[in-house]
UniProtKB/TrEMBL annotation:
It comes from Paractinoplanes rishiriensis. Residues 9-140 form the HTH marR-type domain. One of its GO terms (biological process) is response to stress. InterPro entries: HTH_MarR-typ, MarR/SlyA-like, WH-like_DNA-bd_sf, WH_DNA-bd_sf. This is Transcriptional regulator, MarR family protein. GO terms for molecular function: DNA-binding transcription factor activity. PANTHER family: HTH-TYPE TRANSCRIPTIONAL REPRESSOR YETL, TRANSCRIPTIONAL REGULATOR, MARR FAMILY. It comes from the Bacteria. Pfam families: MarR_2. The lineage of its organism: Bacteria, Bacillati, Actinomycetota, Actinomycetes, Micromonosporales.
Length: 140
């Protein structure tokens, strides 16, 4: 791996875009195999930590436009992967959560994605991998 100093490296936006494309290329076949879209998987991951009080809160947490999220939620609900239940405290609000099938799918996709990530990160030393993941987490 090259050492970069000064202006000899590509801009961060270019590097992140290249990495993003590699990740998407790796993830698309996994998602297709599991029958879920990238946004569908993002919703499943967003709900993996527990129910969300509103669709707007979910959209904000995964960086999605709440109006474009509705058909994705409808599809996931039709497949029995998520539930939208009225909030007992405010019946105008829908609580969103994973069903047991949704949790199983989320974990299965995540396991396959993580295996792909391991392959992608395979050329890095353990120390470089840990530093990369810490830096990525801090910057994101």
């Amino acid at each position: 791996m090259a050492e970069y100093e000064g202006d000899e490296r590509a801009d961060l936006g270019v590097l992140v875009m290249r990495l993003g494309r590699r990740l998407l290329d790796m993830e698309q076949p996994i998602l297709a195999r599991h029958g879920v879209s990238m946004w569908g998987y993002a919703v499943l991951c967003g709900l993996a930590g527990g129910p969300m009080r509103t669709q707007a809160a979910l959209a904000a947490s995964i960086g999605a436009d709440k109006t474009r999220l509705i058909p994705i939620l409808d599809g996931l609900q039709e497949r029995g992967l998520i539930e939208r239940e009225p909030d007992p405290a405010d019946r105008r609000v829908r609580l969103l959560g994973l069903t047991s099938d949704g949790r199983r799918l989320q974990l299965a996709v995540q396991a396959d994605v993580r295996a792909g990530e391991e392959e992608l990160l395979g050329d890095l030393t353990t120390e470089d991998r840990a530093a990369f993941l810490r830096a990525l987490d801090a910057l994101s």
